[in-house]
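Re: that backbone. Tokens:
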């Protein structure tokens, strides 16, 4: 399985090279190369996840090694979904790099043997994990779109119709793409929290226990709820929405990784 992880990492890295080369040289064949490598890497990533599930009968998020594999898979998969809808090709380099970073990191992190535990045998856990991971991947893409928006807006306001202006999509397309990413991520995060509450009740006997992960997940939900509310009621669009998407993802990163390493709680079991 280590060989397949190496192959997947290599494919994601090659995809990054292809997409970034497309961004610089604007040759369609470079975009296709990046797309093919990313799709092949995603397939290999899916095989690894399926292998771990078949081997243990449990969703592979039992340690940091497995968690990073699933994270890379989610980022690549969500990118393809939004690419099909919005055709923001230049976002591919960002998505491929992020997926590559996750899988490479999973290769470097020792895959500690985790004994099979009954707490992992729950349909609620599966729905919870998939919803959270895919939702966070959507937030990651919203952050990338936000960075592109700021770069394009600066190019337009500075009347420098050069490198970025010629290569980046319109501000309207970037804004609508970022909104779709956040709306999708928020919906999935909501589903993930609800199923997480049900799972917590079945395992620990209570829906809420003020676990640090629960608290910060709640903070993340409230932040993105505020972002969506601001857009729908007071018109948070454009640069303000882009900046909020970047801030929101910073909170996601802390909730997803930082809390497990810096604060003790139930979820520390998933990053051993």
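Recovered sequence:
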């Amino acid at each position: 399985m280590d060989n397949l992880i190496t192959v997947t990492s290599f494919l994601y890295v090659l995809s990054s090279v292809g997409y970034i080369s497309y961004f610089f040289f604007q040759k369609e064949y470079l975009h296709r190369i990046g797309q093919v490598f990313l799709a092949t890497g995603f397939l290999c990533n899916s095989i690894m996840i399926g292998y771990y599930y078949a081997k243990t009968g449990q969703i592979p998020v039992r340690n940091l090694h497995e968690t990073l594999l699933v994270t890379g898979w989610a980022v690549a998969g969500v990118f393809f979904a939004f690419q099909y809808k919005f055709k923001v090709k230049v976002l591919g380099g960002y998505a491929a790099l992020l997926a590559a970073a996750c899988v490479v990191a999973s290769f470097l992190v020792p895959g500690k043997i985790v004994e099979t535990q009954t707490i992992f045998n729950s349909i609620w856990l599966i729905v919870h994990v998939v919803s959270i991971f895919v939702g966070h991947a959507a937030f990651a893409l919203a952050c990338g779109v936000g960075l592109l928006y700021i770069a394009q807006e600066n190019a337009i306001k500075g009347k420098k119709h050069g490198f970025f202006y010629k290569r980046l999509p319109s501000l309207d397309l970037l804004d609508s793409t970022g909104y779709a990413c956040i709306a999708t991520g928020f919906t999935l995060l909501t589903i993930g929290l609800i199923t997480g509450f049900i799972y917590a009740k079945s395992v620990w006997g209570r829906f809420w226990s003020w676990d640090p992960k629960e608290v910060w997940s709640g903070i993340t939900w409230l932040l993105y709820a505020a972002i969506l509310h601001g857009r729908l009621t007071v018109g948070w669009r454009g640069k303000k929405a882009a900046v909020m998407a970047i801030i929101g993802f910073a909170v996601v990163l802390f909730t997803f990784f930082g809390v497990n390493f810096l604060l003790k709680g139930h979820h520390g079991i998933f990053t051993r």
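Residues 123-157 form the longest helix (35 residues). The chain is about 80% helix and 0% strand.
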